[in-house]
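Holo model, AG3. Inputs:
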Amino acid sequence: MGFNERENAFIEWYPRGYGVGFKVKERLFETQTKYQRLELYETEGFGKLLVLDGTVQLVEIGEESYHEPLVHPVMLAHPNPKNVLIIGGGDGGTLREVLKHETVERAVMVEIDEMVIEVSRLYLGIDKGAFEDPRAEVMVGDGVEFLRNTNEKFDVIIVDSTDPVGPAKMLFSEEFFKTAYEKLNKKGLYITQSGSVYLFTNELLDAYRGMKNVFDEVHYFSFPVIGYASPWSFLVGVKGDIDFRKVDLERAKGLGLYYYDPERHETLFQMPRYVRELLEKRA
Ligand code: AG3
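Output:
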């Protein structure tokens, strides 16, 4: 797991020996935070690489292939998202994309690991000033606790966590989905990344079933993400009367999108046949 001296590459090993790697130009640094091992590299062809506990969080060149599908489909399907909550997302990429929406009055981000915010702010800069935006409120804390205790309600809740295994597991539990449902306004959308379609299929199906038990409607989609074992899956929970299959193309103008194409929103829902069959079975 991790940096490979012989290859001069960082390689993330997924289950069944499936690897995703990047040739490294420079090892920028490595530290053990209160919660996890954090590594930062300069890669040969994809800019900086951020790694947490041996798993690729993002590569600088291509990170939008994750942040765009995580943020814009829900933001554009919601009729008027004003109050947005982000759980995780310490690098600031999700916050940056959320704040592109003019409807947003307040975006709260709750990240458990202060070091991720610090390191990203200082050495990565993909937040592009989002942390300083007056509409942003950045908090360090446990997202599960925060959501349980807040009196606030949100239009959109975005979970930008690590994998559905290990420390973030709680974020994929039915109990947590229930809390999230309660803390959404009458009409609201919830989205979570839910792992590699091929390599975390069971975790994905478990999360899908949990969400099905809680939300009024659940949608699955996947997207080819640069840096992860693609395709990557996302799950959307709907509360109230919102059609996630339709997005507002007017509001999509001016977002400067590169990967997610709102004019082809329906293509998000393509999936391998066996995944459709499994999801139908779990429903
Ligand atoms: N959030 C982590 C997605 C999970 C990646 N998993 C993996 N490589 N095994 C990304 C943080 C970016 N804001």
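Helices lie at 64-77, 93-98, 114-124, 143-149, 174-182, 201-212, 249-252, 273-282. The chain is about 25% helix and 35% strand.
Archived with the compound record.
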